[in-house]
Amino acid sequence: MTSRRDASREALQKHAKAIGAHDLAVPADIRVVDAVPLLGSGKTDYVGATMLARKLGEPLQERAYCDDIDPAPPSGTSVEHMTVQ
Predict the structure, then answer these.
(1) Cα 5 to Cα 8, 24, 31, 35, distances in angstroms
(2) Rounded CA gap, 66 and 55, in Å?
(3) Relative to the CA of 11, which of 26, 28, 72, 81 has its CA 20 to 30 Å away?
(4) Do the Cβ atoms of 30 and 8 come closer than 8 Å?
(5) Is 56 exposed, middle or buried, given 0-12, 13-18 or 19+ CB atoms closer than 10 A?
(6) Radius of gyration of the chain from Cα atoms?
(7) Whole-prediction pTM value?
(8) Measuring CA to CA, which residue among 44, 22, 25, 41 is closest to residue 33?
(9) In this predicted model, what pLDDT tens digit does every residue of 54-68 receive, in sequence order?
(10) 2 φ/ψ angles, rounded to the nearest 5 degrees
(11) If 0-12 CB within 10 Å is exposed, 13-18 middle and 19+ buried, where does residue 16 land?
């Protein structure tokens, strides 16, 4: 999961090869999102990122009702307090 619009598996594989990393270190699936969920501290919100990854993995018709939800909660808000309307 990344917010870089130019991210691709091919580019990551090329970089991994250049630095001597094994191909297994490169994710098989790269998802570009508007914003990676962050905690109030600015660190990655892994619970929120996992929820977003699961949502992105669902077929489109199953997640169409929540496409307008911002994946990143407001600063200082935990994912457990988010509600889907």
Answers:
(1) 9, 23, 10, 11
(2) 9
(3) 72
(4) yes
(5) middle
(6) 15
(7) 0.56
(8) 44
(9) 888 876 554 444 445
(10) -150, 160
(11) middle
